[in-house]
Amino acid sequence: MPDAVRYADEPDLGVDEFVDVLRRSTLAERRPVDDRGRIARMLEHADIRLCAREPGGRLIGVARALTDFAYCCYLSDLAVDAAWQRRGIGRELIRRTQALAGPETLLLLLAAPKAMSYYPHIGLTRSERAFTLDRR
After folding, report:
1. How far apart are CA 111 and CA 113, in angstroms?
2. Consecutive H or E run containing 52
3. For the chain, which domains are there?
4. I need a surface site. Which of 18, 80, 103, 122 has the fewest CB within 10 A?
5. For 120-131, what is the mean pLDDT?
6. pLDDT, tens digit, for every residue of 76-93?
7. Which residues does 135 contact at the CB level (< 8 Å), separation at least 6?
C-alpha cells in the first residue's frame, strides 16, 4: 500500500468523480455510468463511500457499500484506477470498509468476471451459497 494514498469515507462523493474512477477501472462496463440520476441514487443510499486519493487529491479508488453496521456489509462497488492497480489499494479499501462496517459484520460481494481470481488471492472465501434475482 503506498504511504502517499489517503483514505477517507466521503459521504458527499460526487457523481462526476465516481463515474470518472469507474471509467478508469473496469467497473464502468457493468455500471449505469450514462444515467446520472441512477448513479446519484447509488451514492445517496450507500452507507459507506470509502475513497482512496493520490497525493494531488485525484480519486483513484472507491469502495461503495451497504451495511447495517452490525451483521452484514454488501460491498457493491470496488473500483481502482487501472494505473494504480497491483499496489494494495483494493485490498486496503476492503479492509477499511469492513473496519467501518464493524468487526462483527460479514462482508460480501458479487465479483466481476475479470476479478474472480483476485478475491481469493487477497484472502476472501468463495461462496456457493449466494442467489440473485436479476434486474428488470
Report:
1. 6
2. strand 48-53
3. 6-121 (3.40.630.30)
4. 103
5. 85
6. 999 999 999 999 999 999
7. none
